[in-house]
TrEMBL record:
<dbReference type="InterPro" id="IPR007197">
    <property type="entry name" value="rSAM"/>
</dbReference>
<comment type="similarity">
    <text>Belongs to the metallo-dependent hydrolases superfamily. TatD-type hydrolase family.</text>
</comment>
<dbReference type="GO" id="GO:0005829">
    <property type="term" value="C:cytosol"/>
</dbReference>
<keyword id="KW-0479">Metal-binding</keyword>
<protein>
    <submittedName>
        <fullName>Hydrolase, TatD family</fullName>
    </submittedName>
</protein>
<dbReference type="InterPro" id="IPR001130">
    <property type="entry name" value="TatD-like"/>
</dbReference>
<dbReference type="GO" id="GO:0046872">
    <property type="term" value="F:metal ion binding"/>
</dbReference>
<dbReference type="Pfam" id="PF01026">
    <property type="entry name" value="TatD_DNase"/>
</dbReference>
<keyword id="KW-0408">Iron</keyword>
<dbReference type="GO" id="GO:0004536">
    <property type="term" value="F:DNA nuclease activity"/>
</dbReference>
<keyword id="KW-0411">Iron-sulfur</keyword>
<keyword id="KW-0378">Hydrolase</keyword>
<dbReference type="InterPro" id="IPR015991">
    <property type="entry name" value="TatD/YcfH-like"/>
</dbReference>
<dbReference type="InterPro" id="IPR013785">
    <property type="entry name" value="Aldolase_TIM"/>
</dbReference>
<dbReference type="GO" id="GO:0016788">
    <property type="term" value="F:hydrolase activity, acting on ester bonds"/>
</dbReference>
<dbReference type="InterPro" id="IPR058240">
    <property type="entry name" value="rSAM_sf"/>
</dbReference>
<keyword id="KW-0949">S-adenosyl-L-methionine</keyword>
Length: 462
């Protein structure tokens, strides 16, 4: 687990800093101690040099902007280059709550640090308080090619949209655990798994179970537990996802296991089987081509493994609540492998097999007997329809088969239901999605439906 934002060099830790650092080294993978001005950043760098698991950022907080000017640009660069343990610039940004520096000065120093990050090729850590609209506008106009994280996200939807559109990460701190912050927890559903981070902002903002105490990096586990509960995932899922995301953003070394392309992977107690990276659809909302790492796994296969490789990795399929053929691409692109692996899973005691599909199996395989071949192997088809009418379907899903795809999709759904499979149709509630019409379609087809939250992997308009 990685605490992506702490202030271990602050005086609140003077009395027991060595003890806190030992705890970090024993319980966490890494901690980033974040600078607030240039002298403070030097202390952060010095502390990072003393421990293998502590890293530092160099930055000027908006409160301190009044004490700096563009003449300090070279100092930022110099301090950042002073140690390989510097992994980011920040925290920087806009704070119109206390206004300890003028707005003009805050903008000036924010932009200066963005230019330094561009030169140094480092990600940035962004602070925004009572300045959501202004920070969103700044990100949209100044962040081309800049990586970074919106730290201690507080729930501003316009800011969330701008950050995700520009490829930034979103970090949640202890405030997400506070009972009154249900609206903040709701925003978790819209953040892609590949962009989620966790932090403490210690010594401040202690999570609810230890509220009122001095915060410390180990308490990041409480943040992870709250997020896991909200998203219906396990604590280990959140640990895996956020740790990998932090390493990717801040340039920390990935383990060989983290780098590995995943043929099979677990989420909770479900096993997912990733057969291919190919898909006949190019859905406007899809992560394919934008992200390789989803749910803490590298899912973009550069080759197509043989069935025996899946059998070797799955080993004991009977231990899982459900086994789902779903990954980076469309399972029916490798129908023969799907069938062979499913047969082996059944033989080895696997239960509750599901295929998540675009529903174009007939067109992909050129055959209409495929459902008969899967009888007794697959229990459920979750068909990603993502539309309620042909016009909407072709605009959003964009199947390569063109005209006739909608009709083939509906035939697959009807045939699967008639042949005794459980069928669920699903959709993403992207901007402009007609939820009522989609539910009406499910009712006409007499199948269950599921509507998934839209997650921004880039500007929807583009």
């Amino acid at each position: 687990m990685i605490d992506t934002h702490a202030h271990l060099h602050f005086p609140q830790f003077d009395e027991d800093r060595e003890e806190i650092i030992r705890e970090c080294e024993n319980k966490l993978d890494a901690v980033i101690t974040v600078g607030g001005d240039l002298e403070d950043s030097k202390k952060a760098v010095e502390l990072a040099m003393s421990s293998r698991k502590i890293y530092a950022s160099v930055g000027i907080h908006p409160h301190e902007a009044k004490n700096y000017s563009e003449k300090d640009y070279d100092r930022i660069v110099e301090i950042s280059k002073s140690s390989p343990k510097v992994v980011a610039l920040g925290e920087m940004g806009l704070d119109f709550y206390r206004n300890l520096s003028s707005k003009e000065k805050q903008y000036e120093i924010f932009e200066m640090q963005i230019e330094a990050a561009r030169e140094l090729n480092l990600p940035v850590i962004i602070h925004s308080r009572n300045a959501g609209k202004e920070t969103a506008s700044f990100i949209r106009t100044k962040f081309k090619g800049i990586k970074g994280v919106l730290h201690c996200f507080s729930g501003d939807k316009e800011l969330l949209k701008a950050a995700l559109d520009e490829g930034l990460y979103i970090s949640y701190a202890g405030i997400v655990t506070y009972p009154k912050n249900s609206e903040l927890r709701e925003t978790l559903k819209y953040v892609p798994s590949s962009r989620l981070l966790i932090e403490t902002d210690s010594p401040y903002l202690a999570p609810q179970p230890v509220r009122g105490k001095r915060n410390k990096p180990a308490y990041v586990a409480y943040v992870a537990m709250t997020i896991a509960k909200e998203l219906g995932l396990s604590f280990l899922d959140i640990d895996r996802m956020t740790s990998l995301n932090a390493k990717r953003l801040f340039g920390l070394s990935l383990t060989e296991e983290e780098k590995k392309e995943r043929l099979a992977y677990t989420v909770g107690n479900k096993l997912y089987v990733n057969l291919t990276s190919k898909c006949p659809c190019s859905c406007k909302f899809c992560f394919r081509g934008k992200e390789d790492f989803i749910l803490g796994y590298n899912l973009n296969l550069r080759r197509e493994p043989i069935p025996e490789e899946y059998m070797y990795r799955i080993k004991n399929p009977g231990i899982y609540d459900e086994i789902v053929f779903c990954g980076y691409g469309e399972p029916f692109e490798r129908f023969d492998v799907l069938k062979k692996v499913a047969e082996w899973i059944r033989k080895m005691g696997g239960k509750h097999l599901r295929v998540d599909t675009c529903g174009l199996g007939y067109l992909i395989t050129g055959r209409e007997n495929i459902l008969d071949e899967l009888k007794g192997l697959i229990d459920t088809f979750n068909v990603s329809v993502n539309a309620s009418a042909p016009e909407e379907y072709y605009e959003i899903v964009r199947p390569k088969f063109g005209s006739g795809s909608w009709e083939s999709l509906l035939k697959f759904i009807k045939d699967a239901k008639r042949k005794g499979f459980k069928v669920i149709i699903s959709a993403v509630n992207y901007p402009g999605f007609n939820e009522k019409a989609f539910i009406d379609l499910a009712n006409r087809l007499q199948v269950d439906f599921k509507i998934r939250n839209f997650k921004r992997f880039g500007k929807w308009e583009e």
